[in-house]
Amino acid sequence: MNWKKLGMIALLSTLAVPAYAKVVTGSQTDMNMDLKYPLVYTENAIAQTAINTDIAAYVGEAKDAYYNRHVYQVSQSYKVTYEDKDVVSLLLTTYYYRAGAAHGSYRTRGMVYDKRTGQRVPLYNYVKIASAKQLDTAVRDGVLSFYTSTRKRTYLPQGWHVDYASDNYFLSGKGYINLVYQPYELGPFSYGNTFIEFSPKAIEYFNRMNS
Predict the structure, then answer these.
(1) Secondary structure of residue 199 in the 3-state scheme
(2) For the chain, what are the domain ranges?
(3) N or C: which end of the chain has fewer CB within 10 A?
(4) How sure is the predictor about 4, in pLDDT bands with cuts at 50, 70 and 90?
(5) The domain over range 22-114 is classified in CATH as 3.40.50.2000
């Protein structure tokens, strides 16, 4: 089945929202499925369609896991992390629990959209990163902050390293940018998602190094 197409129909059918709305919640449920996802409303109909088509793909993946791959439990949630007249920044988390597993698993995707075009804004529009080693060094030196899923600032645990430069990111306001890493990538499962945060000063430093 074309889940992307079906998801898009469901998303757009719920977009009868007041003109002042920016992001509203769409939902689809079944016995062991609870999906809550963002529906983004913009003044530009083409941009609005592009954004919600992109989001629909992630909703479709979650439904495919539930109905076709028979994952026991699937849920989805989101958070608006920042919005202004030009962009909207979202975090979308999909949780999967397979029958008999010791615990569930989840993946979190940061999505920053240009509200005028509907396209994703690439990370390099904000900050230039040359390598994973550059990130690893900056985290260890305190130039970049490292957070667990509960937003507790901490250090990279012993034996863990930044092995790749993530382009999965979100905006958190006041010029701050957070790179998103999945569970087990930069720490044990108890850390959950981990985040490497760039302050405006760190962004200037990286862009100066890598210009």
Answers:
(1) coil
(2) 22-114, 123-210
(3) C
(4) very low
(5) no
